[in-house]
User: Fold these one by one.
Assistant:
Number 1:
Amino acid sequence: MEKKTVFSAVQPSGVPTIGNYVGSIKNWVAMQDEYNCIYSLADLHTLTVKQVPAELRQRSYELLALYLACGIDPEKSIVFAQSHVHQHAELTWVLNTITYPGELQRMTQFKDKSRNHADNINMGLLDYPVLMAADILLYGTDVVPVGIDQKQHLEIARDLAVRFNNRYSPTFVVPEPLIPKVGAKIMSLQDPDKKMSKSDENVNAFISVTDGTDDIVRKFKRAVTDSEAEVRFDEENKKGVSNLLTIYSLFSGKSIPDAEKEFEGKGYGDFKLAVAESVAAVLAPINQEKNKMLADKGYLQSVLKKGMEQAEYLANKMIRKVYKKIGLIEP
Ligand code: ATP
Ligand code: LTN
């Protein structure tokens, strides 16, 4: 049987958090043998909020180095920068002509980001899900591994695929989201009602994948819990502790019930330290590898070049097909 296609991306909009890692990148690694995987740096998406050009460039290399350090293998998967394959912008234009402003205006992320960037509510911010749909549909993607916050955007991608297929003829595969059972939404360490986000103003709210052991320990020590002293998973009444248990389970490989037993009769201090140590133990070697990769820009550029050529070949076939179906004359 032919392998199914996987597509996913992260924006180089800041230093990824452990939420980005367990919600997406970590799961991409595991899919590389079973699927045809295509992983992108969503650099065009970052332009929807203000960026400092030199920082964007540096963060793009950092994110690529992180992908590779986490185990994304460019011999197995296509790894490329979205802006290097112009068909993403072209398909966005076509999809825009079958998208209604109303369906974009009701997106939770658009509403949140409009609130947080009230001085820069631009067309790109509104159109963000259409560019994401173009990313996915260009490659005949079957499966899209993402965290739960992207589910709404995946629904738009599915709707647009179906709409185009009905208006013209079957062209796009209707993609399925793949959302992890544990870790789809790691919460802020300072406010367990909010998603952990790399752009949070409070640096104690998130753990960046580049944080050193001292920072990791300090941030977990300060994590908001509750006034009990019982390490028990209860997402209704003990959100902070449940979030820490989820993180501990994902980083130590122990199940949540086993973790509860391990800390029976112990206080939050011991528990928080163990969570911090489990996270630091996973992140330290990844960072070491990432820094090694970053020192070799030539290698990183060669990975992007190869990825661009591979992605462009596929994207070009699809955009030709789309242009033909909608009645544009062939060059
Ligand atoms: P920002 O904070 O800048 O809006 P972000 O942290 O949400 O960004 P993205 O680049 O938008 O990061 O997301 C990359 C991937 O990480 C997506 O698949 C998203 O679903 C996932 N993700 C983001 N935050 C979390 C989280 N807290 N828990 C689990 N997965 C997450
Ligand atoms: N919007 C996504 C990043 C992204 C993406 C994609 C994810 C851009 N294009 C295509 C999956 C498929 C985010 O995680 N914020």
Number 2:
Amino acid sequence: MHKAIDEVKKMLQNYSSVWGNELYLEKALAEVLVQPVAPPKPKAVPKQAPKPRLSSQKIPAQRSPELQSFYLQMKACTKCALSESRNNLVFGWGNPNANLMLIGEAPGHDEDVQGIPFVGRAGQLLDKMLLASGLKREDIYIANMLKCRPPGNRDPLPEEIIKCEPYLRRQLEIIKPKVLMALGRVAGQSLLKTQDSLSRLREQTHHYNNIPLLVTYHPAALLRNPRWKQSSWQDLKKIKKLLQNV
Ligand code: URA
């Protein structure tokens, strides 16, 4: 009994650390409580920029032979100048049979060091949001538009997107997700080849490669503007609805 109470306490603490004290949810929390999902523990990241370069770091293998073999083929990519400054190419990570694929913009510092997407502060918030909304991180695949970190986290350049996008398309062919969610304006605009604002992009279900696509806030933007969390909660509910119909 005590264990169950501790579990409920832990889940509520996680929930309130993401969504604050307002209870947006009804059924989703119950689902999380019944089936808590432990997100993968991010490895400790050194504070200082790593030296020497960490390109030999061990990155866990993809969980499907086809994805792993594609990763091995493209991991030494030199199609653009980002290959010169990267520590690691960040291919993507998650369930190779995922119905839902999340697509971010580009790796940041922590992701470049570890070779895994969304392991920094934004990634930790993303984990908590998924957990609190009842979407299981273990069921999802996460990748980025760009596989290498732009210096200083600047926005991707159009030519970088053009060169990197075929990798994302190939990942989609292999994983065959049923629903896509773009994280942030830049990912949404790059996928949809538009300059529409994030609020406009959030209004409707789009398609990319014939797959339904929703666009929502980037978790880093939610760290800067927590008042957007309520809207992002609405987006997560839309995603769950789309997933129920696939
Ligand atoms: N931001 C992104 O868009 N992708 C990551 O992998 C990390 C931060």
